[in-house]
Prior knowledge:
By secondary structure, the chain is mainly β. It contains one helix and three strands, in the order βββα. The two termini are 30 Å apart.
Amino acid sequence: MSERAAPHYCPYCGDEDLVPHEGDAEKGAGYAWACYSCARVFRVKFVGLRGAAVAGGAGPTGTEGNR
Length: 67
């Protein structure tokens, strides 16, 4: 995985016109992205994998765990 994985669309308006937002970087907080369509700045951060998914344990699959 690359250090800076770019989001494909804005989570607020759904537009794809995104650019990296530089200047207010916080260590470990993920990178900031600016949406030219709705003028919002947001961060996307990878948190990790669930333990059951890594260990192959029996747990909810698909969307069953979203209840």
